[in-house]
Specification:
Layout (H helix, E strand, L loop, with lengths): L5 E2 L12 E9 L18 E9 L5 E6 L6 E2 L15 E5 L8 H11 L4 E2 L6 E2 L4 E3 L14 H9 L6 E2 L9 E2 L2 E2 L1 E8 L9 E8 L6 E2 L4 E2 L4 H7 L6 H11 L9 E8 L3 H18 L11 E10 L15 H25 L9 H4 L6
Parallel strand pairs: 6-9, 17-18
Antiparallel strand pairs: 1-10, 2-3, 3-6, 4-18, 5-9, 7-8, 11-12, 13-14, 14-17, 15-16
Amino acid sequence: MSTYGRPARVGDRITDIAGITVGHDHRIDADARVAGSPDAPDGHGWATGTTVIRVSAPGAVAAVDVRGGGPGTRETDLLDPSNTVQTAHAFVLSGGSAYGLAAADGVMRALEDEGVGLPLDDRGHVVPIVPAAVIFDLPVGAWDRRPDADFGADAVRAARPDFAVGCVGAGAGARAGALKGGVGTASTTIEAGPAAGVTVGALIVANPVGAVIDPQTGLPWDCGEADLAGLGLRRPGSADIAHLADLEAKHTVLNTTIGVVATDAVLDAAMTKRVAMAGHDGLGRAIRPAHSPLDGDTIFAVATCEVSPEEAVPTPAGMHHDVAVVAEVCRVAADVVQRAIVDAVLAAESVAAIPTYAEAAPSALV
């Protein structure tokens, strides 16, 4: 494994939720080249990987919402709230387009070796539930260099609370419009209101068709002064804004953004799906346009069901009894997804000569 990425910040990462761990496996060659470049018309070298979000909470409830027009997924039908199985033992986010779905086989194998999965008899046999989604990164590096089952097995075995963001795991070959994309994360603990004490976090692989940078400002979309301070950014000079616009004219049109939103709130399957849906609101804030016919935008959600509000909020007869809690969790879910996408782009390092935001707009860095 190549050395890439920076550590995710404690207190602002998906693993701030107990029962969630993250592991990466990737391969990046120093001489990787994007297909179509003058010295590598068919691409060259490795620049891809797999990220696994492992769920060890015994009462976890899982869901998914798919909005892109070109998704590559596995086990998403299983997560419909009307179906029987309502949990997941791990989520796989992988490069390699549809080929990369093979990484989930390795995750299942590794979990089975540990005895983790749905127990279906009295002899210790289990079936791990491992939903997966992939990004299209095949032109970054050689077309036939893509994750397989071994990537998945190594990633799930590497899962821990401390993990890296940037050009790691499934973000190794990611592109965000014209810029280098990657893996990003964020989390928030709700301090007041009906969901006080609940934590919501996200991990996103940012690989969109759309732009993550506002061409008018040269900054992430809707980035106010307070946001600039928190991100370590300032308003870039006009030359850098023009450079970003020139790059955007050359961006790729075959991409996808995928990820997981997690919360420790006690939610049922239908309300967990609402959280996945709200995650797409954050995707729409951070990427423009989002959910295009050429994206495969997919967001999984998981509720570990460990934290209940201290006081129930009365609801009218006929309404879901947790609607006040769900509304707050959904509000925060959109926010952490937006911040995770920005985190991915700011943490990215150059791979296969794809420019990073820092390289394209150095005047924006404090």
